[in-house]
Input
Amino acid sequence: MDYLLSIIGYAVDLANVWRFPYLCYKNGGGAFLIPYFSILILGAMPVFFLEMCLGQFNRQGPISVWKIAPMFKGIGMASCFIAYIVAFYYNIIIGWSVFFLFSSFTGTLPWTSCYNDWNSDNCWQVDWMQNDTSHNTTYNTNTSVSSTVEFFERGVLALHQSSGINDLGPVRWQLALCTFVTFTVLYLCLWKGVKSTGKVVWVTATMPYVIMSILLVRGAMLPGAADGVKYFITPDLARLADPKVWIDAAIQIMFSVGAGFGSHIAYASYNKFHNNCYRDCLITVAVNSFTSLFSGFVIFSYLGYMSLKTHKPIDQVATEGPGLVFIVYPEAIATLPGSTGWAVIFFFMLISLGVDSAFGGLESPLTGLRDEFHSVMKGFRYSREVLTLIVVGSAFFFSLPCLTEVRFLFQYLHI
Output
């Protein structure tokens, strides 16, 4: 169960919440499930199963497993390196969630007001109880910016302080501290190996489903929720003729399953030789797909509510990436009674979704290097702890440029 929860936690990540619902809506609603499951069954699942078999049969990490064909060892090195690079930016998103979580412990959520140091003259806020819009200046649809947008882009990221990639600006110490907390948690969970990680995922892999169930029940009670869900699932079969729909489905499912990063090889290498990895593969992809669909119902119930409240079409409210989980969703939460509690619950869920995926991402280079250089490291008493410190610490160091005031990371996540 430790292993099964670990690979489920790695496969189920932030993309299930912030990307799949939008892609499903944009690419034909229920019709998007046809290319999604076709590519899952014919492409992603066989590769996923292959990686599990390689790791479990050879009992080696993603680099040394290629002793079966030494000329392909570069594949293992590349997969570990890519997993390592992903840690530079992926853990920063968890750091953003930590920042929002701490910011939520207030009587009034900070993104609901225009009277803060980071706000501009174009900021406007909505009195949701009165359905009235109040502004610091005269409201203009072309220039006015929501207080939620300004909190994220100016209060959190300070994008207004930079003119572009040539003007990085200083590191945002608040974000650096939150990201440091994230990397510290990762180190403490990884330094003893998969046994310690396997215990942590009992919480991080199961908690999101509890929280999403709570959010779904609350969202279903909101006016306009049914319209949002209808937009999400209404099929448009004509969209299947567009090749981009199939490309989006392939990108989403391959990245979501996590094949090609070496993490599944690393985790499976610790299994017993006769473990039923075929069963584990089927369970993992089933849970991963269920989570994507489940999160879609949760997200679009709130988007339908936001559409009703703002008097905007659903296609203007629905978005993907950081705009969904750090702008649209917080704005919807702010309208609910007891908004502080709902915000804490939601951002704790994001942290849980991100952390267990980060475990798997870093386990790939850790297991790969440890197995590849086993003969050198076996003489050191604390080799695993030191190696983990080097990998995790250097990943934090290389993430610092993404914590400056320049907007290139934010733009990359929108691509």
